[in-house]
Amino acid sequence: MRISVIIPAYNAEATLADCLESVARQTLRPFEVVLVDDGSTDNTRGVAARFEKRLMLRIVTQVNSGLGKARNAGMSAATGDAYAFLDADDIWLPSKLEQAFKALLKYPKTEWFYTPILEWTPGRQENLRKRACNQVSSVRSFLSYNPIVPSTIIMRRGFDYTWENDRRLQEDVGAHLKVLNRGDFPKMLSEATLKYRLDFGMTADTEDHLEKVMRAVAKAKELGHINEKEFKLYQVRKAYEMARTYKKRGDQEGQKKWKKEALNKAKTTRMPLGLWLRLLVLV
Question: What is the C-alpha separation between 234 and 121, in angstroms, rounded?
């Protein structure tokens, strides 16, 4: 089972060396590493070049087109039996690929997998925290808990999956909903495999991120992948996530604003008990 690592990178000079070092330190070596330079204007390519021989790394270059097209380009260029995705500002734990390899062999009928993450703020190592993560067993469970982080995903080569190419939309949520709607559910592996960098890149601009996500989910509704009630459920979930983000930043006004928004939207749809409890204890 040959695993290709796919890393999209745009102006990632500041974080890419740590990212690639985490791949180099895996207990199971990857078959190859495909880094897609998404039109970087900094020294991203130079940092990547230092790892070419050590990691069997190939650099694919494209005009800046966004994360979705970069991941899709990486999948087209990769030659392994499965893909492991890693963003250039994240860090894998050493057993990531070994756990993936075992899962691919143990569950031959499962097309894709994901794992929990450890939330991480560089310089505050003592605050490393495992984020709650649920098994996605239905479209509603995905919308309620939103547990799939791209840098944890393992996917078989033959799986019919395409990341969103329209950079005005979040590249993952609509793509997930398309395959979930047809009944292709991933398996959650129990061991956390990722140090997920907070307040950096996508997570640094929460308002812009929210707009892209909701545009992607609105498109999924238009395509019939979810219904109106499910769309409203995801609105509650994202408002809760916004409140949680502002709480972590110590911004009480932002936290109160988005918790109020989540509670108001919760009146319009049926929610699972777990999401209600998370929302209510968010004080």
Answer: 26
